[in-house]
Write a structure and sequence with these properties.
The strands form two sheets. This protein has a six-stranded antiparallel β-sheet with strand order 1-11-3-9-7-6. Strands 2, 4, 5, 8 and 10 form a five-stranded antiparallel β-sheet that branches. The protein has one domain. The chain has three helices and eleven strands, in the order E-E-E-E-E-H-E-E-H-H-E-E-E-E. The model has no long low-confidence stretch (mean pLDDT 97). By secondary structure, it is an alpha+beta fold.
Length: 200
């Protein structure tokens, strides 16, 4: 097996790849403050996909620790978190941004969004997502207060921080360099940037 070259997830756009069982993907926060919405689908049946609801139940946590696996909507492991240099803050609560989110934030024209980025990334592989599952929002910092309120804060990660995920089944992995520029989830400057991944 060979290691792939770095693959760019362009700022505000998506990218997807096939990932064989037993192979790993390293997801790199190149500039340090970029949220990367992440999805994984079974290669052989796209209606089975990484599920945040099912994973939180399996983990008994809202964020996985190194060595733990995210599971599908059929409660089977799909990716295992092997390494994390970023501080371990990765949101599992929020849905992917979409046109409706930006309309509610005041946009009157089209705004790039992670829902459309997922569809475009899979289309490049000749695939169509059966729906838009809630993503694993890598590097996204959504603190939960004692009263249940959630915050929208900049990532705690630094340039070059990464996660390594091992595939537990043949899958399609998809990423979106989140285009959110209206709340500071991509850093206080609200400027989305490119990120990278590498299959190893």
């Amino acid at each position: 097996m060979t290691t792939s070259s770095l693959i760019t997830i362009p700022a505000r756009r998506g990218q997807a790849a096939f990932l064989e069982r037993g192979r790993s993907v390293r997801v790199i926060n190149t500039h340090g403050q970029q949220v990367i919405d992440t999805w994984a689908f079974s290669r052989h049946e796209l209606t089975e996909f990484m599920s945040m609801e099912h994973s939180r139940t399996a983990l008994a946590r809202i964020m996985p620790q190194v060595g733990q696996s995210m599971v599908t909507n059929r409660r089977r492991p799909i990716v295992t978190l092997e390494e994390d240099t970023s501080g371990g803050i990765h949101d599992t609560l929020l849905a992917a941004c979409d046109r409706y989110r930006y309309e509610l934030l005041g946009c009157r024209e089209y705004h790039d969004n992670c829902t459309d980025n997922l569809a475009a990334a899979l289309a490049e592989l000749g695939l169509t997502p059966p729906e838009t599952p809630s993503p694993w929002n890598l590097f996204m910092n959504i603190p939960v207060a004692s009263d249940g309120a959630v915050g929208f804060e900049p990532p705690v990660s630094s340039p070059g921080d990464y996660l390594t995920l091992r595939a537990e089944m043949d899958c399609v992995i998809a990423f979106s360099a989140c285009p959110q520029d209206m709340v500071p989830i991509n850093g206080a400057d609200c400027v989305p940037t490119e990120a990278h991944f590498q299959i190893i």
